[in-house]
Every structure is written in C-alpha cells, then in structure tokens.
Write a structure and sequence with these properties.
four-stranded mixed sheet, about 210 residues
Length: about 210
C-alpha cells in the first residue's frame, strides 16, 4: 500500500489496519481498502456468483456504486422496487433469507465492535441472523475510540442526519438534535452492539480510507 499525501488519508491509512486486526480478533473477516475504487472491487469479490443479494438503506453503498454493479451480476431483493408499503415490508422480510446482505454500520469502535441503530429493525435483524453472509462497508469517519463513543456517534450524529435524509417528522428531524424521543416513527427504535461475529467469518467488514455515509 503506497503512502498517500493528504493528512486525513495518511491518518486513515495508519489507523485502519489496526482496526482490521481488532475486528479479526473478534472473528470478523475484515479488510482495509484505502480508496473507494479498491473498496468496490473488494466488496464485489466477496459476493459469490449466483448469490441472492439484498441490502439495508445505506448512503455508503450508494456512494460507492455497489448496488448498481450487483444488480448487473446477481439476483437481488430490492425493496425500492415495491409499489406499495405492504409489498416493501414483504420484501424486507424476504431479504432476511438472502445469501448475501449488504449494509453499512453507524459506528465501529477501535477495539472491533459494531454499533447500529434502526427504525424498522431490518438491518440489525439481518446482521444478527438470517442471511448466510453479511458484508458491512464503512468509511473510516465512522470509527470511534470506544464502544461508548460508537453509541454516541450513532445516536447523536448518524441518527439526526439520517432523519434529515428521510425527512422524518421526529424531534431530531425537526430540531437536528436527539431528544431521546418516544416517537412512533423514531429511527432509534432498536440499538445493537455486535461484539463478535458468530459464526466466525459470517460478518465481513470492509473499511474504506475515505469519508463515506453519515
């Protein structure tokens, strides 16, 4: 890996491989890709030919152009193709039995733990059980020092920004800051800390030396 010259990129290149080693100690398959192009190539290489692929809502996947590539090579379950809310819900349920599930993570601690929040619960459900393989793609901007910092990032940075993305009528969608709300449309309904991959290698983490997602 050749050394990059941008200070932030140099920072990521030094930090990223250490986080990968921490993830491997926790039985995740993990990879560090300095560039978006390398990350895209790595993710595609981890998806077997013929696998049925599904995904959770993710700005990171969209930014890397992964979904467009996968649609050209694999059968997919795409809830965006649903014409009704009920059809979308059914596709999300079917996604839990796919072969490969793609998602990002709201935060990853330096010691190799994932932290995610979810409104519908489909992302965290797939991460825990169902798909044969889960590929988590995350920019290094989502790496935090501790798991407590990871929770704080997920709740107080990622969630309010995603509320803006979805134009959500929750307190954080209106004010831009978390109110620890009990809104029926809260995007923080479920919070999941994943401390190991079980079985080993089921969860594959691709860290990217770039700012991706929220």
């Amino acid at each position: 890996m050749s050394e990059r010259t941008n200070p932030m990129e140099k920072h990521y290149d030094k930090r990223g491989p250490k986080v990968v080693e921490a993830l491997k100690r926790r039985h995740f398959d993990a990879y560090y890709c300095p560039t978006k192009e390398e990350a895209l190539e790595k993710v595609l290489s981890l998806i077997p030919a013929g696998d049925v692929v599904a995904w959770g809502g993710s700005a990171t996947l969209a930014q890397l152009g992964i979904l467009e590539k996968v649609k050209q090579t694999n059968p997919v379950i795409d809830r965006a193709a649903a014409s009704t809310r009920e059809e979308g819900q059914e596709l999300m349920r079917k996604a839990l039995l796919c072969d490969t599930y793609l998602m990002s993570s709201n935060a990853i601690s330096e010691d190799g733990q994932l932290y995610n929040i979810d409104g519908n619960g489909n992302r965290v459900a797939a991460l825990v059980f169902g798909p044969k393989s889960v590929i988590v793609v995350a920019g290094m901007n989502k790496v935090t020092k501790t798991i407590e910092d990871a929770e704080a990032r997920a709740r107080y940075i990622a969630a309010p920004i995603n509320a803006q993305r979805f134009d959500n009528n929750t307190p954080c969608g209106i004010t831009g800051t978390c109110a620890d709300c009990l809104s029926p449309t809260s995007i923080c309904a479920s919070m999941l800390r994943t401390r190991i991959s079980r079985p080993a290698g089921k969860i594959k983490v691709v860290l990217v030396g770039a700012e991706l997602g929220f």
